[in-house]
Q: What sequence folds into this?
């Protein structure tokens, strides 16, 4: 516990301002009107600061989906049955899920970590079994997890990043799978941002309006019941969290501490990023936000994180899918930055 | 001339509604909440209709940059000198330009066609010399090109597409290079949409506010001078056009007639797409719009075409660069569509 507390309190890595300035200067010399590549220029400069080199690169990409179940599913908050969590874990591993196809297309490594499905799973190639429990408790009645379980979930995420980093990780993407997890994530975000349930609650995987109304009531009930315990981010995550959301938070914290760029996925992932930033201010420096989710509450979370996502494609799948779709933008940004000729090299006259 | 007129009047290819419906049905069966991949689902369905097959693919991608100079440069309308047009043609061919790096990264074929630079160019590998003239005439004083020259420019674009199509083209991207060409494109768009110059004029490659004011005056002067000649799209293009914009229009028309999906780049390309749609209504069915340019007039042109671009990254470079950056979205959309498992295949329970 002591080691963990020391780890949690350890600082965020610093961005390399020298590499950032070198990248900025290079962008001014490339054969294009200054600024005409827009956010692709900003990305290259930002990645230079993160990777501490003037010519950043995004070749070694790790995509990790954390999966778990949620006690609050007893309140009937999703359009899908809970059995889908384990069925989708199998689907990730066998290559049929969206993120499997994307990881394969992008030549990225895909890992799946089961941090707490209700159903036990057979041994599956590509799935790490680190089940903390058979799902969280129902936070409408009690605390979702114990403090020890929260520490365990954070550590699973953090240790995973440490392992990946030893293999030359250049970009980390985390994803989530867990039927019912927009309910947990929405409750966490409401508590972290002190907002009522109705401001952030949306359809998740596809609730109709009456289902959304019920979901608002469930979340508001939990927020009211636990009001006195929701002052600090640790307690918020313990009270309302899912194991996979906490594991994502732990992974993001480890990236921020170890200086690994993170490409954040959509709604659930952004809530984990918000929790990381509140647990350790400054973590957000290491986060690039990939896409605006169609889940309506996402925008307020992005605003709270001062984040402007790269894409807005109406996606709302989770699994890290939105972040994966943004990977080519980072790769192309680095390719342009490194590969374009300067005005001098190409003997092109600059702006008058 | 007669053959050309017959060609121009020949109809647009039809979308395949059967393949479109098959693709739509497949999307409903893939292991994800219906609609949760947002525009990536729409793209796969749209490409199925265009390619007339339920599992479309984007492997054979042609990127062609048409380059030319503009007589209106005599009015001092750009931040860059005219010599940059030919310098950039060399830069495209030698691999140092943004589009060269992008084409290489995307494994797309890049062609450069010189349809009318002021300067003569040496023979360059990868550049086709089809100069119509040493730039257009200054449209502040006279008509930019003759009717024969316009036909020539349209034919160069169209013949190029026909040639590419015989090599199995699956997606066509056109781009532009021509110092001063936002002035020409803005004037064309104003005439086609019957808007005053100030509503569409922007900084182009980087004019400061006084330069933009001057550019507005130049364009408005031309619109007023040629008012009686600007009733029909053919005359608009002849009076105000650039050779590269007309060649792009010809290429887009050929794609629409031959059933080749087009990924439209930014401001200049969208004006060419607008001209194509006005010359041959229905052409727009074959256009996918890649990105919202930072050039402020772009939005009104997109609105006129009922187009919602895929990306908004603040890009304003031309050269087909914005379209190239959107190619991975189309590829990933096709990969997801073809590669994901169905609910049945993965034994995943669907929505309740």
A:
């Amino acid at each position: 516990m002591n080691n963990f507390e020391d780890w949690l309190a350890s600082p965020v890595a610093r961005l390399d301002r020298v590499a950032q300035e070198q990248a900025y200067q290079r962008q001014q010399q490339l054969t294009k009107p200054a600024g005409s590549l827009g956010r692709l220029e900003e990305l290259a400069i930002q990645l230079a600061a993160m990777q501490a080199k003037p010519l950043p690169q995004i070749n070694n990409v790790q995509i990790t989906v954390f999966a778990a179940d949620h006690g609050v599913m007893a309140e009937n908050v999703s359009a899908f049955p809970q059995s889908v969590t384990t069925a989708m874990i199998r689907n990730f591993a066998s290559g049929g899920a969206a993120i499997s196809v994307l990881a394969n297309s992008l030549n990225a490594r895909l890992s799946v970590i089961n941090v707490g499905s209700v159903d036990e799973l057979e041994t599956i190639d590509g799935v790490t079994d680190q089940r903390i429990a058979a799902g969280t408790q129902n936070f409408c009645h009690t605390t979702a997890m114990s403090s020890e379980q929260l520490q365990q979930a954070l550590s699973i995420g953090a240790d995973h990043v440490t392992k990946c980093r030893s293999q030359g990780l250049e970009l980390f993407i985390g994803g989530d799978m867990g039927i019912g997890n927009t309910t947990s994530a929405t409750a966490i975000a409401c508590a972290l941002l002190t907002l009522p349930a109705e401001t952030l609650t949306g359809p998740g995987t596809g609730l109709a309006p009456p289902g959304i109304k019920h979901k608002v009531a469930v979340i508001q009930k939990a927020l009211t019941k636990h009001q006195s315990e929701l002052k600090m981010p640790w307690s918020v995550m313990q009270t309302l969290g899912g194991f996979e959301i906490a594991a994502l938070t732990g992974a993001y914290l480890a990236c921020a501490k170890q200086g690994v760029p993170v490409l954040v996925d959509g709604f659930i992932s952004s809530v984990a990023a918000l929790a990381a930033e509140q647990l350790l201010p400054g973590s957000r420096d290491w986060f690039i936000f990939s896409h605006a989710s169609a889940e309506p509450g996402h925008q307020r979370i992005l605003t709270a994180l001062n984040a402007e996502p790269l894409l807005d494609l109406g996606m709302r799948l989770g699994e890290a899918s939105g972040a994966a779709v943004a990977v080519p933008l980072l790769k192309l940004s680095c390719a342009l930055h490194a590969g374009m000729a300067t005005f001098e090299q190409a003997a092109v006259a600059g702006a008058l």
